[in-house]
Write a structure and sequence with these properties.
heterodimer, A: 480 residues, alpha/beta, Aspartate Aminotransferase, domain 2, Aspartate Aminotransferase, domain 1, 3 domains, seven-stranded mixed β-sheet, 15 helices, 10 strands, globular, B: 437 residues, 2 domains, four-stranded antiparallel β-sheet
């Protein structure tokens, strides 16, 4: 257990100091000023450094080891991305500088937008959305504006498959839609008959992840998008899984009208412990008039020109610009061939792991997978009591980040494994070996797994206590 | 061409053979009509040296100003080297959301410390792990306050226009009505506010200091809103809180804001950091991730993502927001910045900003620039002057100085921070004086 930085604090200790004030001191009216200093830490520079170094040792990034966290595409984040995004000409420019003084920044946005258009088969992009869920919300507002503009006011529903990310229905609700869940068929794809039965003139859109959260490409995709279009709806592409199909197939060619991408997944920008990400949204031409303010205008190449009927603005300025610089750097590095090679290897690595594990860890829907696959630990649980969570916690002791657990919801005791293309055969072989060993231990010595992890700074945590008795900030009394 | 694929062609073939799998079958479920029959029309991949050259070329086409006197939601502040260096640790940069608490105590603790420091400067009880930026934080806060009976949000014209637009965008299809409160002398018009407050008012949004840099009478306005049973959302520049009363002391039920001034470069607008803090009774309405303290099985202190029953992955369409990621790395940086500055350092930054802003105004006034609004300001202020605003921008730009933001033909919104010296400010005045002569 590390001390909190507040517990290292000592009154009067200083780290960073400003030069002396070189103009006359101006005091703010006393009625508006605080009477006591805020109790933020008072530490020396070396205290600060050692504290955060200790915290960094208790964190695990893709630079530390294998991170097959399904749906999150934890691929290696090239160092060049960090170098280009910290160039002063990008990092130290003000968002409201005259446009003539930021032509390189605008050019970078244009280059990224057009590359993303080509990869996805869309007509235009906005780089403003800051993450996947933000992109979904943006896309649904675009769809809402589209129907509204056509005076097609009856459409109040958005269809979401039962295998979808939780952000899909939540974003639909924020955009003012009620959500209808569409069941999956026995192959893990959209149940087309069930889809037909809910399609009508009240449906605004279908949201789809393809490949879906089971790692499967829906073979009926063209029929699905045709059916939705025939009913007057639009088709939304959740790009969380684009890493499977770059240079192989494009959402724009599958009939999708709007897509969001997760640059922090597919395009190698680091996740930063939870963000910042970037969730650009691409659209077919019918949605261009509704793009948010702060989007680089597709033809005028200006930020100040607004689209015809903008949905508004999703946040201040133009999005997570430096994250976008990283993604552009990555695309320039890999080029057309490299992006395709990345996808092919992501798919190969996933199929390799699946083939070597599926005898012990049954795959939920048997089929070659795309870039990830979902296994069920239900049988293991039934026979040994060892759950997907126990398997995950055991992996920690082997220095492997666990897969995504208990998602998608339609698979019991799910583990979703996404190795990505940047892992070697050796790494995959070791993970396979470890998972097989854990499986064996479940039958021979399950207690070892129930006690895991034992090599971490802490044992398993009490989630229930955290929620029942929330301690959400440091106070001297609560610190034990 | 750069490639981050590790396995050689031979290894890939070995993998296929060992696993008894066939590469063609992987794509069998993709209809032929959908398979891309040509290479992507993108440039060939480049070596690292070529990419760096290209990106440097783009970066060099942007002007990096020596002196920045522009704010309006993005400010140039000093960032200590220790913050830049430490926040770049790869374990922080390349980690995912800390789902696995045992392996992620460092990330979780850094967020818990960030939450604690934000609570300390705002006076609030609880804070989330951050949202995308200050504008979306205000929008999320408005969503937190509405219910079936109270559906009207009041927003004065003195908040940042991009914030107002973002709130409008977020709430356009929700059962929330926005009403704009008029301003007088650059701050909230009390009479306008009074006429709009009703039993249907969900919240009043106030920005402190406001878009024009002016200090609003938040306490007085909050009192009126509370008397009407409405919640008060204060969007406060966290840098100013080294000196100003906490939003809590001023009457906030929810404190939010743009935390870019806390150690994040201007970055052409992002990534930034929206902070959100509130009172204990409203914690369960907060959107996004929250880190809490708990115990491990041995009874040791531990940190974990908590109160997840609010969130999209559990509640789906009934969640408080669809937000999934946060700006964790920006939050880590801001937490680090606050610890590096400490209470005295934060106070010094705020004091220097306000002192230098007043100095610049005083010097500009000798040239005939006048305050547009006769109200006291913090470190931003609006002038109307003897020169067209775009002329001021152009002339100063030619000298490596980014002027205040032209608001219209004569109005300029200036922002002065600790990064400008007296000499810099004197130079601004000398340059403008020459133009006027």
């Amino acid at each position: 257990m590390s001390k909190l930085i507040f517990e290292l604090s000592s009154v009067g200790r200083r780290c960073s100091e400003l030069p002396p004030l070189d103009v006359e001191l101006v005091q703010i009216d006393e009625a508006l000023t605080r009477q006591s200093a805020p109790s933020i830490p008072e530490v020396a520079e070396v205290d600060l450094v050692r504290h955060y170094m200790e915290l960094s040792r208790q964190a695990f990034g893709v630079d530390n080891g294998f991170y097959p966290l399904g749906s999150c595409t934890m691929k290696y984040n090239p160092k060049i991305n960090e170098e280009t995004s910290s160039l002063a000409g990008f990092a130290h420019i003000h968002p409201l500088q005259p446009e003539s003084t930021v032509s390189g920044a605008l050019r970078s946005m244009e280059e990224l937008s057009s590359a993303l258009c080509e990869v996805t088969g869309m007509d235009a992009f906005t780089l403003q959305p800051s993450a996947g869920a933000h992109g979904e919300f943006t896309g649904l507002l675009l769809i809402h504006a589209y129907h509204q503009h056509r005076n097609d006011l009856k459409r109040t529903k958005v269809l979401v498959p039962d295998s979808a990310h939780g952000t899909n229905p939540a974003s639909a609700a924020m955009a003012g839609y009620s959500v209808i869940s569409v069941p999956s068929n026995d192959k893990g794809g959209v149940d087309v008959e069930a889809l037909k039965s809910v399609l009508n003139d009240e449906v605004a859109a279908l949201m789809l992840t393809n490949p879906n959260t089971l790692g499967l490409f829906d073979p009926n995709i063209l029929e699905i998008s045709r059916l939705v279009h025939e009913a007057g709806g639009l088709v939304y592409y959740d790009g969380a899984n684009l890493n499977a199909i770059m240079g192989i197939a494009r959402p724009g060619d599958m009939g999708f009208d709007v897509v969001h991408l997760n640059l922090h997944k597919t395009f190698s920008t680091p996740h930063g412990g939870g963000g910042p990400g970037s969730g650009p949204v691409g659209v077919k031409s019918c949605l261009v008039p509704f793009l948010p303010k702060g989007t680089l205008h597709p033809t005028e190449k200006k930020l100040t020109v607004s689209s015809e009927f903008p949905i508004g603005r999703m946040r201040s300025f133009y999005g997570n610009f430096l994250t976008n610089i990283r993604a552009l750097t990555y695309i320039l590095s890999l080029g057309a061939e490299g992006l395709k090679e990345a996808s092919e290897n992501a798919v190969l690595n996933a199929n390799y792991m699946m083939a070597k594990l599926s005898d012990l860890y049954p795959v939920a829907y048997v089929s070659p997978c795309m870039h990830e696959f979902v296994v069920s630990c239900q049988k293991l649980k039934d026979e040994t009591g060892i759950t997907a969570k126990d398997v995950s916690k055991a992996l920690l002791d082997y220095g492997i980040h666990p897969p995504t657990m208990y998602f998608p919801n339609i698979v019991h005791e799910a583990l979703m494994i996404e190795p990505t293309e940047t892992e070697s055969k050796e790494t995959l072989d070791r993970a396979i070996e470890v998972l097989r060993e854990i499986h064996a231990l479940a039958y021979t010595n399950p207690q070892v797994l129930l006690d895991a992890p034992t090599t971490m700074p802490i044992k398993r945590v009490d989630d229930v206590l955290a929620a029942r008795h929330p301690i959400l900030k440091y106070t001297p009394e609560e610190a034990q | 061409m750069a490639s981050y694929v590790v396995n050689t062609k031979e290894q890939r073939e070995k993998m296929l053979a060992e696993a008894g799998i066939n590469e063609k079958s992987f794509y069998a479920s993709i209809p032929q009509d959908v398979m891309l029959q040509r290479p992507l029309n993108l440039p060939k991949g480049k070596s690292e040296l070529e990419v760096l050259r290209h990106m440097k070329h783009l970066a060099n086409q942007n002007t990096v100003y020596d002196v920045v006197l522009r704010g309006a939601g993005s400010e140039s502040h000093f960032i200590p080297a220790v913050v830049r260096q430490l926040s770049g640790r790869e374990e922080f940069v390349t980690a995912y959301t800390p789902y696995q608490a045992e392996l992620s105590q460092g990330i979780l603790q850094s967020i818990f410390e960030y939450q604690s420091s934000i609570c300390a400067i705002t006076g609030m009880d609880a804070c989330n792990a951050s949202v995308y930026d200050g504008a979306s934080a205000v929008a999320e806060a408005v969503n937190m306050t509405s219910d079936r009976k109270r559906t009207i949000a009041l927003i004065p014209k003195s908040v940042n226009p991009e914030t107002l637009e973002t709130v409008k965008t977020y709430t356009q299809w929700l059962p929330i009505t926005l009403k704009e409160v008029e301003i007088k002398d650059g701050k909230v018009d009390v009479e306008s506010l009074k006429s709009l407050l009703s039993t249907e008012t969900a919240c009043l949004v106030l920005q402190q200091p406001n878009f024009f840099g002016i200090l609003e009478d938040v306490e007085g306005l909050a009192k009126l809103a509370h008397e009407a049973g409405a919640k008060v959302i204060v969007s406060a520049n966290p840098m100013t809180l080294g000196v100003l009363k906490t939003p809590r002391e001023q009457g906030a039920d929810i404190a939010v804001g743009e935390a870019q001034p806390l150690g994040l470069p201007m970055s052409f607008g992002g990534p930034y950091l929206g902070y959100m803090a509130t009172t204990t009774d409203m914690v369960r309405r907060l959107p996004g991730r929250i880190v809490g303290q708990t115990l491990d099985l041995d009874g040791k202190r531990a940190f974990v993502l908590t109160l997840q029953a609010r969130e999209q992955h559990i509640r789906r369409e009934k969640a408080s927001s669809s937000i999934c990621s946060n700006q964790a790395h920006c939050a880590l940086t801001a937490g680090m910045y606050l610890a590096a500055m400490g209470p005295q350092g934060l106070k010094d930054v705020a004091t220097q900003c306000t002192s230098k802003a007043h100095y610049l105004f005083k010097q500009l006034s000798t040239l005939g620039f006048k305050l547009r609004y006769d109200s006291s300001f913090f470190h931003e202020f609006v002038t109307d002057g003897p020169l067209p605003s775009f002329k001021v921008e152009e002339v100063l730009s030619n000298h490596g100085i980014l002027s205040g933001l032209p608001l219209d033909d004569t109005g300029i919104l200036w922002c002065v921070t600790e990064t400008s010296t007296k000499d810099d400010l004197d130079r601004v005045v000398a340059i403008l004086k020459e133009v006027l002569a």
